[in-house]
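pinned: reference chain
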Amino acid sequence: MAVNPRDIIKCPVVTEKTQAMMNENKYTFEVAMTANKVEIRQAIEAIFNVKVEKVNTVRVLGKTKRMGRFVGKRSDYKKAIVKLAEGSKITLFEGM
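pinned: its structure tokens
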């Protein structure tokens, strides 16, 4: 059964650190928890029409947060740091 690439790649992670990594041709995305590196590579190549050189993944555990006497927890998620081959580029925003 073929999986839609947009079910694997949820959204880009845009922070000061990830924007600095974009200068090194590395992009960060939030991905499905069950996705492996091969699926992430294929999804990025299919969506953005680029050549992926390397994929690193990190499972990020959600923080425990309090609101007065109530305790809650943010959701866990998985992020992928994707290094593109030389000459490939992703335009996440039109203004960049």
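why pinned: The chain has three helices and six strands. Helices lie at 5-8, 16-22, 37-48.
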